[in-house]
Amino acid sequence: MLSTDLPIKAVLDEIAHALRPPGSAAVIVAPPGAGKSTIVPLLLEEQAWCDGKVLVVEPRRVATRAAATRMAALRNERVGRGVGWRMRDDTNVSKTTRIEVVTEGVLTRMLHSDAALSDVSAVVFDEFHERSLDADIGLAFTLDARAALHPELRVVVMSATLDGAAVARLLDDAPIIDCTVRQYPITTTYLASTSASFDADHVARATRQALREGDGNVLVFAPGVYEIGQVMRSLQRDHSNDASVEVLALHGSLPPAEQDRVLTPSPSRRRVIVATSIAETSLTIEGVGAVVDSGFARTSRFDPRRGMGGLTTVRVSRASADQRRGRAGRTAPGRCYRLWSELEHERLREQTTPEIAHADLASLALDLVSWGDAAGTHLRFLDAPPPDGLHEAQRLLRELGIIDADARLTEHGRHCAALPLHPRLAHCVLGAYALGHGSLACTIAALLSDRLPTKTATADLAEQVAQARRRPQIERRADTIARRVRSIIKVVDSPVDVTATGVVVALAYPDRVARRRAKTGSLRYLLANGIGAVLPPHDPLAASEWIAVADVEARAQDARIFAAAAIDRDDVEQLFSEQMTAVDEVVWDQQTHDVRATRDRRLGAIVVARQPLDDAGAAQSALLDGVGRDGLRLLTRLGEADALRSRVTFCRRMLGNDAWPDLSDDALLATLDTWLTPFVGTARRRADLERIDVTRALQTLVPRALLAQLDTLAPRVLTVPSGSTIALDYGSDQPVLRVRLQEVFGWSDTPRVAGGRVPVVLHLLSPAGRPLQVTADLGGFWQGSYPQVRAEMRGRYPKHDWPEDPTKAAPSRGVKRPRRAP
């Protein structure tokens, strides 16, 4: 029996018993440091039923190398003999290797190559609680292979924190084996930040506090490589002369030698290890006495409705926070400094959301098609792929020519599937070789596939590529991709020309070809997929009218561009000639408030070229739409019709007869086709609307019989005693007549309309046109207020008549006539 003092020893017999039956499975729940990653695979390899390999599936490359190295040491042999690793671009196994530690993506490729896993006796999924997309698809494929092709295959799922019951049900009610580990007490201190986002200075201050308040190494969690650099620079400034403190970074893109250095204990110096979530559970780091947790993690987010995604910084879950905290209490009492408040901690989500729920599913969709189950309906997932995300992923594969309309692999698709790249990058590399830019495409794929950090002062990917080519890690990765391509198709490598970076990026991201929205130098662009995007402030790339965007983060408004490259319009026309569409568009333009009639040549949402279009019928429809949107005031002669509208409305209201039409704005806008369309004629632009006789158009809405009565019931004008013809105003509840007082001498009573039902409201004006009296009772005015008005006005306007009895006086339009001499 395997000899070990690690906590996992307590349940080894239980594990061996659970996996004795052919095709059995087990769920092992054990915290970090229990020994599950190394001891369990060694246990399985010793079992009588194990006549093949044991595959140990790790979520990260660092953990893969560390687990294989540790197991080889326990067997007193070097890596590559009994125990080896297999990662993308890095394999260390031999004919005698019985335990292979592989990354999750490699397992999927092994299954595509040999669906039965014919030389494998057991598959162990380690740290499954991280719920990566590759882990979910790898487990689903493994269970499918076991059911159809390899019924004796054993399957083990191991985790530090996991809903063991749900996984056990997925594994046909497999037993759950719980390995409890003594946890030393950990003192938790909450140091809330004033910033809602990651604050490197706050992290550095908390790290310095952790160094002062205790012994041991300090493990600092930051969301990504960029943030690690920020924290390290701050710490190194403070400890530049302190030889007792060593500040190190730990993340997946470090070269293996630097990773090994971090994982190898240092007996003489304290360490501050600034790490991503990679250090949360996948690795054992010795001597950690304190943890400083920023509370943030980097995760992949994809919005299928916008067809866009990328790495996003998010708050950790409570489960992740507890895992991080636990790293401080493995061998002695520890301390944890959480850079948020206790109230904020209670508001954190309980578990980390599975990647399959929010990630870009293009690689998953290609795996499913290659597996022969494009929809994944016959596979057993712990969480099924969201339909919208899978549908969007399949749409992308069709757009790239990887699958056909029936979701079957094309020949190009089979070549893409053979490359260990995202489908976009695989399509890009193959297409770039046909254009003579294959070597450049391999470098770009190496840079983008692992998001390897490159420091530049611009988002210009061409500059990033130029700098990246001087880095051995990226060059090795690019050479590996090139060799894989040559093994699939006959190609010839060519010199790298970074000026073609935009062309290569456009092959990978045809939906992200973008054109500047406004004037030269603007940072705002419109992508072919219809999304707005913006460059960083003052970025020189803004001088380019056309760009191809490689790395972008979706936001509520304009997406943020991290990496892009300039591309010529001629290259866009040539690359996407078959995708270009001709769009005739005759619409009401809400910006110019006029008809826009154009024939556009478009790439997605981008207008590549535009010319005028002559379509009278469509222009007239657009005019009507414009009136409907912007209102009746677009009709220049609407004012001429106001009198008709108010008179008809008066009759409708006062006579209580619905036969009189509703001529309100809302009613007229709702019936434009009825009364306005016949009068549009040859009008095609807003200026042509001034030719429309709106009054005549509205008269068509009034029944002929009622129109004949209109002048009687609601006369347009009244003739006053002076002989003047004055228009009536029907805009108020009662009709209004504005008239000078002298012109109504001789009237003893108020005139009426609507067959005598409604008195006219008289606005009696002074000779200067100023109101003297408003009344609907003229007779009462003559008898009541008039004498006072007469007394006040006679002195002010002596040349006008102010008779004592206005009902018997002669009306006048102007000054009184002088008397003739006798």
Structural notes for this entry:
The structure is a single chain. The longest helix has 17 residues, at 472-488. Strand 20 (546-553) and strand 21 form a beta hairpin. By secondary structure, the protein is α/β, with parallel strands linked by helices. Helix 15 crosses helix 19 and helix 16 (438-449) crosses helix 18 (472-488). 35% of the residues lie in helices and 20% in strands. The protein has an eight-stranded mixed β-sheet, with helices on both faces. A six-stranded parallel β-sheet has the order 9-16-13-10-12-11, with helices on both faces. A five-stranded mixed barrel has the order 17-18-19-21-20.
Keywords:
single chain, eight-stranded mixed β-sheet, six-stranded parallel β-sheet, 29 helices
Q: How many individual β-strands?
A: 31
Percent of sequence in beta strands: 15-25%
Query: How is the quaternary structure best described?
Result: single chain
Mean pLDDT: 90
Shape label:
elongated
Rg from Cα:
41 Å
Helicity level: 25-40%
Overall structural class, as computed from helix and strand content, comes to alpha/beta
Largest sheet: 8 strands, mixed
Residue runs with pLDDT of under 50 for 5 or more positions: none
**Widest sheet: strand ordering:** 4-3-5-2-6-7-1-8
Number of helices: 29
Give the CA-CA distance, first to last residue: 151 Å
